What we know:
The structure is a single chain. Helix 3 packs antiparallel against helix 10. This protein has one domain. The protein contains 15 helices and no strands.
Amino acid sequence: xxxxxxxxxxxxxxxxxxxxxxxxxxxxxxxxxxxxxxxxxxxxxxxxxxxxxxxxxxxxxxxxxxxxxxxxxxxxxxxxxxxxxxxxxxxxxxxxxxxxxxxxxxxxxxxxxxxxxxxxxxxxxxxxxxxxxxxxxxxxxxxxxxxxxxxxxxxxxxxxxxxxxxxxxxxxxxxxxxxxxxxxxxxxxxxxxxxxxxxxxxxxxxxxxxxxxxxxxxxxxxxxxxxxxxxxxxxxxxxxxxxxxxxxxxxxxxxxxxxxxxxxxxxxxxxxxxxxxxxxxxxxxxxxxxxxxxxxxxxxxxxxxxxxxxxxxxxxxxxxxxxxx
Length: 325
């Protein structure tokens, strides 16, 4: 099996295993009942919120690239970000769309390594902000912390849910290491990467804009989740949900499944259970969120279709020119 095929098989297996665990632990009837009567105005509001989310993300990428001296227009950044989002949804791992975004940008700029660095640093900025928000979420959610402490005190970490908690914590702890290893391994020089990291993320004139834009993006992710709650008829107060969502978002950022499916739902089930809430509600909310994100990425399919059409037209023109010769 080829290397891409091996990776796809592993992530598909991970997704299937996680979903199978959910089938074993969760009352699917309760999940289905929760999703039975959807409130479409709330879903449309959630979809609408994904538009500024992509625009702000594209602006952050453009800011990062321009700090490195790269050329990237706002229109191109939005178009490429939609394409990357769509590919992340339909391809395994959740990062291949970003790899394609970096590759397409590198083709149009002489600074190839910097184009790859820009995508990684832009994503890292977002994940760093999400990690900080998750820390705050644990601090602001006593029920979640008490749930973890109670499970440890009761020695429930030997149960399937307890093992899921341990696995989630290990995966979250390894997220930064995995991402850094994955991207810096391919860099031409670590010194060049460090220089670009400083110029585009850590410099005094840049980091406030990076942090503000990343925080806005994380807020939009959380907002979509919150809008999905009334869409499926959840009665849990938004003030409670607000601090349960960041750990779920951080878990789905791990490039171990297909578009975060399985990881997101498993994390939601664990987090809701630890907070003393019905696990099936967390799973239903996560499924609704995943469906909204998938639909919101469809403009990227249009970009992909247009790009394929342009390449086909160029290929046909080249063949006709060769025939005339």
